[in-house]
Design a protein that fits this description.
about 350 residues, Heat Shock Protein 90, Ribosomal Protein S5, domain 2, eight-stranded mixed sheet, 9 helices, 15 strands, binds adenosine-5'-diphosphate, binds magnesium ion, ATP binding
Amino acid sequence: MADIIQLLPDNIANQIAAGEVIQRPGSAVKELLENAVDAGATEIRLLVADAGKALVQVIDNGKGMSPADARMAFERHATSKIREIDDLFRIKTMGFRGEALASIAAVAQVEIKTRRQEDELGSFVEIENSLVIKQEPCSTPAGTNISMKNLFFNVPARRNFLKSNAAELRHIIDEFIRVAMAFPHIFFSLTSNGQEVFHLEPGSLKQRIVQVLGNPYNAKLVSVSEQTDYMNIYGFVGKPETARKTRGDQYFFVNNRFIKSAYLNHAVNTAFEGLIAKDSFPGYVIYIELDPAQVDINVHPTKQEIKFEDEKIIYAFVQAAVKHALAQFSIAPSLDFTL
Ligand code: ADP
Ligand code: MG
């Protein structure tokens, strides 16, 4: 019998790997917005058509790329953000895996225009099925303008798994909000089928939260703020009266990264014990900052799950900080201090 094992061609390997990072238009939104943040942009515009199925476009005024980097960015494991494994535990950027653009280029048609401030001309690159089909100099504002068109055009089976436009747009908005809440000093906008849905001027954390979650929150937030040598915690919890029967506005950010943690969620819920009905959930937006060496963010490709070196300390700290904030509020509700 002949040998039967073969290496997969790059474009197929990339399509398979893409499944971990890009499940839907919203996943691309997250990756492209994070790239714009990592590029130091102060203005980031997101445009989508047909709930991202036809187009996801992100325009930033960040540092842009050289012509060679504009191609290289789409190679798998190509990144400017880490050089060695230890860098993972010092990481300050949102990205580091060098997989997002390669994944997107494997499952969609991509066009990018990018220019560094110091270059007179920028580069235009067009990619399909992981292959560069065109690259030429172009004039374009400093920064990066990247379009992902016709997601899964070459993987019909996955295209069929996409949900209705309403559901996919909801995912896009969720991802947009998470990034926007982590970086209140950056201008963000979201335009869907030509209509501006969000226009978020830079401001304080509280302003950004209210911009995103809605005006009714303005008078209903209690500040949380504690510092220790090990970690800082800041942000807001909703006053007990804002608790709802469904889990709604609950956000944790660790070193500016939105994370999902049932464990920390429990810490906040228990801090509310006795203040809200048993079957209801408090709203909160809580930011935790600690040494990156204390967190492993490389446990999941989308980085929404992380591992803490010492989970129990974090739990106790979150719970105590929220309790403290609520106690101060109940003693002097009118003295709600803001950050
Ligand atoms: P990662 O973000 O993990 O490094 P990506 O595939 O998302 O991987 O991006 C690859 C590289 O392309 C980045 O490391 C960065 O150098 C460059 N890049 C991507 N997007 C942008 C952008 N909007 N502006 C400037 N450089 C970018
Ligand atoms: Mg990235």
